[in-house]
Fold this protein.
Amino acid sequence: MVRFLLEVENLCKTFGGLKAINNLSFSVKEGLIKSIIGPNGAGKTTIFNLITGIYLPSNGKVRFLGKKILSLKPHIVTSMGISRTFQKTKLFEDMKVIENVMTGCHAQTKAGIFSISLRVPWMRREEEQIRAKAISCLEFVGLKDIADVMARSLSHGEKRLVELARAFVTQPKLLLLDEPVAGLNESETLFVADLIHKIRDKGTTILLIEHDMKFVMKVSDEVLVINFGQWIAEGSASEVAQNPDVIEAYLGKDLDFA
Amino acid sequence: MKMGKKNYGAILLFSAAIFLFPIFTQKQYFLSTMIFIALNAITCMGLVVLMGYSGQVSLGHAAFVGIGAYTTGILTVRLGWPISVALVMAICLNLVIAFVVGSASLRLKGYYLAMATLAFGGIVQMVLMNWTKLTGGTQGLLNIPSISILGLKINTDLRFYYLVWMITIAILWICLNMFHSRLGRAWQAIRNSEVAAEATGINIGKYKVLAFMVSALYASVSGSLFAHYMNFLDPSPYTVMASVWPVLMIVIGGRCSVWGGIVGAGILSIMHELFQKYLKDFDTLAYGCLLVVILIFMNEGLVVGLPELFKKVYRKLSNVGG
């Protein structure tokens, strides 16, 4: 039986009078790559912000591994095994690349203020462990050579990859990627597509938002289409591409010039 | 991040210099200046943790120094408590106050946080001035005993010099340890992007308050040591203006590194002495000019700016030579 990792039920979010998310339900199967697509302003990023606890929902339920996670604080959601990246990269610019990735391990480390202040041996061991983890994660995304470079001096493509490494270093159960290839060139996009497949094969389920249709068609096992915060279609990439409602959402209705 | 040999080397070298300093001169004037540098440096390192590491602002830090000073002063003079117990009590009191004030005010950001901490500093100053029964008001609190350790009375400048610098170096080491750990990374992450910090699993509320408490703790230690060094307290060093001093020190020294706190404390304390002697009433103007120059040419402070300057000059010189 297929297990649902994430179940979203009747999710609603209003900003003032605007219904950003309107009674949306969907679920994400474990071990798959699912894409959310929709025109600009359809509410895609809002879904991510609701799942990760940045926004409080107006109504609805979200269950992760059967547990309710809606309106939990962001850092608690993260420590349960959901990591994310951002549409506009949000790296810690004043820190080195390796430190950025090590910060991703925060919820998995335990050293308290006293053992840190005195730099006790087990705290040092923990540091070495996450350093090794961060290095191997950087190697995985092909950035091991720039581990000691300041994050602010990276190119846009490198920043996207570091953010991916920071989110993936803990091997989360669910990885939310908000436009992972926005602003990347074709070869970089292919590289990310390849990485995403590899991440899935390592056992992480992926939910992503993307506008690049070629990319979506290539990586997705399943596609969800929304518009104006509402469910429009769901299914495999090719099914969705032929759905008349989807075509209408993207291209508009045929006008009748009678 | 690794602590690195560089930092250990620097600490060792610095400790050696501090240890040897009294061999060259034991003039009371120099020793007491060095003692004030150390006391300022302790407060500044706390402020680096708060402002440099975690990116929060406090314009009321003299309040924590004052609470530390007056708590040990009052407990030892009025109640006759032993200094060690009084010192711990002062720290505990400051931690509690920092927790309460921090939990409330750190929800604010930027200017609003600055105003809230400024107000807190003002309130504490008023209490110190006007609760005369307890603090002695402007008359001051007299006859504060000197510290003694294992029967050795720390009543000369030389002895106090070694005590205060040992504590300073211990705090320096602790601050560096904090910086190079998950704690330091969490603070820096908050400074860079609160949203991203939360998304990597950092409880930002908790870590902001923690930074506030750590900096209050150091300020408390600095205040208590000052009280037992001077053997006398009055409210004048805890004005709102006195809270600006450590901020100025770390901006000039370098707010993103504890070394910046020490360098800033050293340079400004020495300048304070020199300006008072030679510039008299124009000293504020001189500080203003210094600050403007630093902010324009080395906006990350001397500990970052000077090495860069040296590198530039060195490159120029070697180009000319080659």
User: Anything to note?
Assistant: The radius of gyration of chain B is 20 Å. The interface with chain A takes residues 1-3, 174, 177-178, 180-183, 185-186, 188-189, 191-193, 195-204, 210, 214, 256 of chain B (CB under 8 Å). Residues 4-15+27-239 of chain B form one domain. Residues 40 and 242 of chain B are 11 Å apart (CA to CA).
